[in-house]
Amino acid sequence: MFAYCISCAGINSYVIAFTALAGGTSWPDLVASKIAAERQITADSAIANITCSNSVNIYVGIGIPWLIDTLYNFIAYNEPLRIQNAEGLGFSLLVFFCTSVGCIGVLVFRRLTLGAELGGPKLWAWVTCVYFMLLWLIFVVLSSLRVSGII
Prior knowledge:
Elements: H1 2-7, H2 13-39, H3 44-77, H4 89-114, H5 122-147
């Protein structure tokens, strides 16, 4: 019902879906990664949790509903097996891949220069945090613009 009310405001349903998916699944992952980073000597488990959980959340969170929809339409209405309403999916996956490369690049850079992926001098910790938030914002904005037909 909430998504229906938001869609009445003219926001594309795809934008609502991936924003809700990102917000709904990221907070528990953030807490799990923070706990893992605090309890381990290295940040390996926290980094692995972030990388894997975000990928799984996106691919499974979008893929399973489309699979169910496609199979339902095939069985109930004898429609061909194809993904419906997948505008912008390929573009969003490309942007996700590029931002992931940007994240991994920063982690490698931090390892080589600071000796650690997380923590370190407060200034660099904040710079990295802001950079990661900007990458997420770039993903959301570019994907939203694509499905809205602006780019």
